[in-house]
Design brief:
Blueprint lengths: L9 H26 L1 H15 L5 H12 L7 H28 L3 E2 L2 E2 L1 H11 L6 H28 L5 H27 L5 H27 L4 H28 L2 H4 L5 H5 L4 H13 L2 H8 L8 H10 L2 H21 L5 H14 L3
Antiparallel strand pairs: 1-2
Helix pairs in contact: 1-2, 1-4, 2-4, 2-6, 3-4, 3-8, 3-16, 4-6, 5-6, 7-8, 8-9, 8-12, 9-15, 9-16, 12-13, 13-14, 15-16
Length: 360
Amino acid sequence: MTGRVLPGGVDEIRSTIAETLHRHLGPRAREVELLDPECGRELAHRIVSFSLGGKRIRSILLWWGWRAGGGADQGPEARAAWSAGAAIEVLQTFALVHDDVMDAAPTRRGAPSVHAAHADHHRSRLYSGEPARYGDSMAVLTGDLALAWADDLLYGALTDLDTRNRAHRVWRDMRTEVMVGQFMDLRSQARTERSVRAALRTDRLKTASYTVERPLQLGAVMADAPDHVEEALVAYGRDVGVAYQLRDDLLDLYGDPDRTGREPGEDLREGKNTVLLALGIELARESGDSAALALLEKVGAAPVDAADAAEALARVGARDLVRGDCHALADRGAARVAALDIDPDVREGLLDFAATAART
């Protein structure tokens, strides 16, 4: 992302969101401490520290949507937008903590995931019962409290805005869509489903809507943006959000581990129904490449070597097709905002964000 984005660049946006999170979450964590000191330390403060991590993509996009919609860059209304950005970061804490439980992920951001940390705590203290179950249960509680705090933050941010009812609806839609997307993701893994259409639908709900489209729309609606601006931002978010997920699918197999922070083939090991895999199976079947088809159809049922799968997907043409779709979606999204009469720095940020989605 470009550094020339209001106000004072992306780093300042991140810093302001961090300050807002400290201001809102610190007192909430202390409230929990008063009820039970251990719960405060082991659960509430973990939400605070977790929420302060991450790249702030969603809150940056919300701020851009706010500014694109004509929202002020300072004053009480601007503070409402910052609070809404903080709310979406706490919502992300809820989503990631629960997602790690569902994926049995041992780490997050280079440290033990919440459920793994609680399981380790259980073992080190020689508690009775099953450590893994204890860890999962504590992580569920952590996510539940984060979701409640996110709602509290958002509703408080909207209290004095005339647009609050419409903004509440965007927030409600976003929460529902990400959970439906997660349901579809889990179900497709359990069924070893291999469908391009289903994978795109999951990408649309779980990634595009939650990560790009709805944050932009929430900011725009809060600012009472003109209809054509809101519509352009929503369409941009849909296209660029799916492009980002397709890019992530490619990076999972073809990315440099030193840059991605993960070993190649994570999606394969989890048996995910990605567009890349589903398309590869279709193309292998159509081309008569029986070796590629046999290998790719094993995903989710038996271990598959990531390098072999990457080679097979490239050989049948799936890699190039997904890369082409990624570029086309990013370009189409960029075109939707290129001519908007909005702050030029915000427009530049959106165009740069779209360009990043095409870097495969």
